[in-house]
Amino acid sequence: MSVENAPVVDVDEAAIPVEKKMYYRFESNxxxxxxxxxxxxxxxxxxxxxxxxxxxxxxxxENKPAIAIENIDGKTLKLVFQWCEHHKxxxxxxxDGSVPKIVEIPEFDAKLMDIxxxxxxxxxxxxxxxxxxxxxxxxxxxxANMAQGKTPAQLRRVYLLPSDEEDxxxxxxxQEAQDPRAREVEEEFEERxxxxxxxxx
Amino acid sequence: MADFLKxxxxxxxxxxxxxxxxxxxxxxxxxxxxxxxxxxxxxALRRCILLDSFQRNPIKKYYSFNxxxxxxxxxxxxxxNLSFHEFSTRKxxxxxxxxxxxxxxxxxxxxxxxxxxxxxxxxxxxLNGPIFHIFVNLCKAIGDEDVLKFQEFEFWFYRFLNGEHxxxxxxxxEKKIYELxxxxxxxxxxxxxxxxxxxxxNLVRTSRSLQTFxxxxxxxxxxxxxxxFNLVANVSFSRWVSIEYTRSRSGCVxxxxxxxxxxxxxxxxxxxxxxxxxxxxxxxLYLNTLKITLHSKDEPEVSLDDLEAAxxxxxxxxxxxxxxxxxxSDALIKILPSLKPGYLTTIDIFFTNPNGNSMKILxxxxxxxxxxCFFMDGNRFIWPLRHLYHFxxxxxxxxxxxxxxxxxxxxxxxxxxNFETCLIRVLNDTGANAIEVEFGxxxxxxxxTSRYAKIYHYPIPNSTEYFNIDVRGFDFExxxxxx
Lengths: 201, 483
Known about the structure:
Chain A: Residues 134-178 form the SKP1 component dimerisation domain. Chain A: It comes from Caenorhabditis brenneri. Chain A: Residues 166-201 are annotated as: Disordered. Chain A: Pathway: Protein modification; protein ubiquitination. Chain A: Belongs to the SKP1 family. The structure holds two protein chains of two kinds. Chain A is 52% helix and 6% strand. By secondary structure, chain A is mainly alpha-helical. Chain A has a three-stranded mixed beta sheet. In chain A, strand 1 and strand 2 (33-37) form a beta hairpin. The longest helix of chain A is centred in the last third of the chain and has 15 residues, at 133-147. Chain B has four domains: 2-161, no CATH class; 178-213, no CATH class; 218-379, Leucine-rich repeat, LRR (right-handed beta-alpha superhelix); 390-483, Double Stranded RNA Binding Domain, CATH 3.30.160. Helices cover 41% and strands 22% of the residues of chain B. Chain B has helices spanning 2-7, 9-21, 26-39, 42-55, 67-73, 77-92, 103-106, 109-124, 131-142, 150-161, 185-193, 197-204, 208-215, 268-280, 304-311, 330-335, 356-364, 366-370, 403-411, 430-439; strands spanning 219-228, 232-236, 242-247, 251-256, 259-264, 285-294, 318-328, 346-353, 373-377, 393-398, 421-426, 444-445, 453-459, 465-472, 475-482. Chain B has a 15-stranded mixed beta sheet. In chain B, a hairpin with a 5-residue loop joins strand 13 (453-459) and strand 14 (465-472). In chain B, helix 8 crosses helix 10. Chain B starts with a helix and ends with a strand. Classes of the chains: A mainly alpha, B alpha/beta. The A-B interface holds A 97, 99-101, 103, 114-119, 121-122, 124-125, 128, 136-137, 140-141, 143-152, 154-164, 167 and B 132, 136, 149-151, 154-155, 157-158, 161, 177-184, 186-187, 190-196, 199, 202-203, 205-210, 218, 220, 286.
């Protein structure tokens, strides 16, 4: 996709002084391109470190290829950058785990996260990978809110949680896939049983 | 997209059928359908408002419109009426050998999609609650939970919400869908942190692997209360959620969320203690407040040894504030040793009959020595005041206060770097007199009050701070202040 028709995340241009107006270009794994302000990037520790290390000038941003984010798709990345632009300049919370976390989901975030679980989990995965602390907090809170007041059976349906039996079956399947010999032994055992032999040995 | 409903009689019939199966009244069904179509069709809405203004009807809600008037604007009321009654009759009077009417929706994936579309339009028009409830109600209506998976429902629901209305779209089943169990462990921890004690209890019951994971996470809970009356006990998690235990002839009856369960051969308070123990056994539980109230007027029904056993584990309990209301201070001595020294900050007690011996043991406990605040009500504090001088903040009632006591306070308490404030209520004027003897001139006597009110300042040597001693009647409050 060319730069001109790349989806550009909404930015409040008036809020940024002219001399500091610096943008970076990022590309998702499905080749969608985004222009993101420097201040918004600061919400992501991973991207912030990356652009600091690259030391791009405004010309570099335009002339060099967009920075590829290889494991996040365009749909998810759009949500991530929309969030970063909206919350740019906000302090990044520090959590030392000693006190209960108090996280409120602002209206903007609630609307942004009015998405299906599949996309929400992708968003969480991206927030974790890009180390965007507050986005991770609000998205995790949203997932936790879904659990409120639900019975174990309902939780299984919402979160697609396997039951213990399904868990065991999946484990067995994984083991067998790793060790083809185990399956052969099993089949041989079954075959001998069918032939009337009581003992395998 | 609402046009689709308007112009597609079959789809509209599916929506009406869904409402019938969900037990919605005819008026509500009609208003729901009209609202959904009107909300999504600005020109129809404008026409209705115009018509309505001609008739000078107050516009409260769409469904307050004159039915015959909007009937032609939105959907044909007569057809609607016929369909509704046809479905209602078939629902209530199923003939022998006839298939349930819900099968129409259950066996046709497109009909089911229309239902989801209709629910998403209702959601957009603010006619619906949380998405999971919509899903549960839909499943109930079609009478089969296995027909529709939540993920399938959610996929279509959000597609429709996003304006993608193609009913014939086929999902790529091979495409990886991210699930909770795909999340990195740090993310799972983050999610678990927001779950309260009850939701976690449900989550651990879903599978063994989640149980192992969830039980390994820190759990902060605000208030846990145990209250025991003469015939009933209560374990409460919040203002709204509690378990009640009532005495019955053969044991007790346990009531949680309106569900009653009889327990044979176990006294009500013992069952409450057993349940409390099962909550407290989690070493990762951090309680802001543990409140224990024992209201047994006559012979104390609850055995304090059983209470002690319910709180005793191989680990200390992480409790920040302890509140106890009981007949005797013996209860405190059974509870305090189980709490984590240093984490326990506040001890708040109400005793009607303090026991001297148990208090002496208490003063030697490390939990007492490392706590920061102490509040006592219900009776007098009859022991030497020096046992309170390590606190940052305390509040007690005294029989009397001698000059010797005030002198000791000045020499010991006022030299404690921790002490910030205290409120002492004395039964008579001995305290006020002793303070006057020890601190001399007062600074201010409040005018226009019949009560005796004096303020003394005691400067702290080598510092800019001082203690403000505010004497009002027989009570006095000491507070550390900056100049």
